[in-house]
Amino acid sequence: MHVFVSHAAADREAAARLRADLAQLGRQVAVDRGEPVGPDWWPGVLHRLRNTEVFVLVLSPDSARSPGCLAQLRQALALRRPVLLVPARPADAPPEVADAPVFDPADLGADRVVKLRVALRSLPSTPPLPTPLPPDPPVPYLEPYRERILDTALTEPELRTVFHELRARLREDPDRARVWALLVLLRDRQDVPRPVAGELERLLAPGWQPDPEHRVERRYWDGAEWTTLVRHEGREFSERRVPPPEATWSGSPRRPHLVDTPPRRPVRGRRRWLWVSGAAVACVAAVAAGWLWFSGPGPTPASVARTFVDAVNVRDVAALSDVACERVRPHAESSFLGGGYRLTLESVDDEADPPTFTVLTTNEATGAVDRRTLPFVLESGEWRVCG
Length: 387
Fold this sequence. Notes:
With 387 residues, this protein is α+β, with helices and mostly antiparallel strands. The protein has 12 helices and 15 strands. It has helices at 12-24, 41-50, 61-65, 67-78, 112-121, 143-150, 156-172, 176-187, 194-203, 301-314, 317-323, 332-336; strands at 2-6, 28-32, 54-59, 83-87, 207-210, 218-221, 226-232, 235-239, 258-260, 265-266, 273-274, 341-349, 356-363, 369-379, 382-385. It has a 5-stranded antiparallel beta sheet with strand order 5-6-7-8-9, with no helix packed on it. The protein has a 4-stranded parallel beta sheet with strand order 2-1-3-4, with helices on both faces. A 4-stranded antiparallel beta sheet has the order 12-13-14-15, with helices on one face. A hairpin with a 6-residue loop joins strand 12 (341-349) and strand 13.
């Protein structure tokens, strides 16, 4: 008899004991923790379920709400596999199997394996697979990560685990864009441990990344969102798309409709390319005391820069005042919101003294593109924009 055991990660020990008991009975066992292990995870689950004679759900609060475990259970029911519930921790069974037989190994002692044999034999016989087979449900294999990130009860060690797993997937996973979006979602949590928050800021810092839409070779990430700046076939362009993210292809099938942008030059010897605006005159502020990045007070320079860019783009005077230094705060609205520019965060230079950030500015009236670098100052323990 082939048995498929589905369990949540928290019930690994209970699933291992059950697998050992089933092995004593001579059963062939497939165990799955109901979480994705790559893009081929779900096809592998389907293959094993179709060769299964009994589906066992290790029942707990975690498995009862796990998208992966529930998807496996529903597919087993669609394939008409008998279901056996084995409680690991107290929990209500999913509605689909509220009346399914239950085998509780707690307190059975030496009789546990014998009683398990009885429970398996009492299950209805396994019918043939339905013809035609039910369609494969669209199971996003990364969805469990999203559920965990949105779980407000997640502990700091669990948050660190999620981060390290997603960072590893970013290097390997073909669906890199969705992994990237999950990392951004994780960064938005306020309870991320400080070392992880610092690593997230560095990982998601502005820079060139593989195009998430696979339209061109590289696309510029400004630290908060994907921009229209692209690299393709050895050239850099500002991609014109109306409306985004759909593309207008003209002529050649190799390249979307693109508009040349002004030449760019390297700054401070870095390989990162920066664009600066000529719209205003830079003002270098007083020397910042105690430049701190990971352990420093308040938001990081990167997050302050993102807030500044967003405030300018949506004309949010209150948010702009929150991040402007005392000297320019009384004139922040006229200084930053009166020029008719849209900003794109290009980079944050955390090695400068004081730190600076560079933005790409687009004149909304003429479409002209330029670049500008603005300094930070440290005021009352908070980083502020002063320029």
